[in-house]
Amino acid sequence: MPSDTPTKPQDKIIRLKLSDQVLDRLREMIRNGELGPGDYMPSERVLMERFSVGRPAVREALQAMHTQGLITISHGERSRVNELSANLVLSQSDKVANILLDAVPANLEHLKEARRMFELGIVRSAAAKAASKDVIRLRQLLADQQAFLTGRLDVRHFIEADMAFHTGIADILENPVISAASGAMLRWLQEYHVNALHWSGNEQQTLDEHAKIIDRIEANDAVGAVEEMQRHLDRSRDMFAPRRSS
């Protein structure tokens, strides 16, 4: 082969940092089951000897795993492996999602539309599947939200109760990925409620709409549940707005 043959990009050898290589090995230990949820991580000294690396590489790799939510580092104790779940994976995106929404305000509209399509699909399936225990749970969540209207409106808790209601509908499907995705979108939207939250008189309207959705779910009326949810989401769409720059 001629010596002046250009090197193809895929031919290049990329030398990884030692800490990156340790990180890959540690993740593989979790992937193959050598380390399971709740297990203590091997000590730094054991990892140093096993991988023939220094303490800085091990500590950097462990910190990266902590940042990724794979392990929990506690002062004075050995790190422990976290239980892996769809919610854990999506929650790691919260800060990045908020940066994206702030940097490109148009993405907030895209997120609202995605959430609308997602929730309409969820409520259709939930209404078809719901049992009496699910309806009881939704009515309790509605009562919890109603409680925050007594006296002065507790805005933060009212929003959290609103999120819990919508997540409760997703939970009827008993699909952890759907529940996690629903919760993630609600968290990403949470920071973009307008200051007044619900304009005067709209708090009760929100609760009334939730009650109608529950009624349709209780009747296993998938079409009616979709119609009620669609009205609810369309009416509340303008309650989310980009943050004003200071």
Would you write up a description of this structure?
- There is one protein chain.
- The chain is mainly α and 246 residues long.
- It has two domains: 18-83, Arc Repressor Mutant, subunit A, CATH 1.10.10.10; 90-239, Four Helix Bundle (Hemerythrin (Met), subunit A) (Up-down Bundle), CATH 1.20.120.
- Helix content is 63%, strand content 2%.
- The protein contains eleven helices and two strands.
- The chain has a two-stranded antiparallel ribbon.
- It is elongated and about 65 Å long.
- The protein starts with 17 loop residues before the first helix and ends in a 10-residue tail after the last helix.
What's the helical proportion of residues?
55-70%
The tally of helices reads: 11
User: What's the assembly state of these chains?
Assistant: single chain
Please count the beta strands (DSSP E, at least 2 residues each). Answer: 2
Q: Separation of termini?
A: 61 Å
Shape descriptor: elongated
As for the number of domains, it is: 2
> CATH superfamily of the largest domain, please?
GntR ligand-binding domain-like
Low-confidence stretches: none
**Which percent range describes the beta-strand content?**
under 5%
CATH architecture of the largest domain: Up-down Bundle
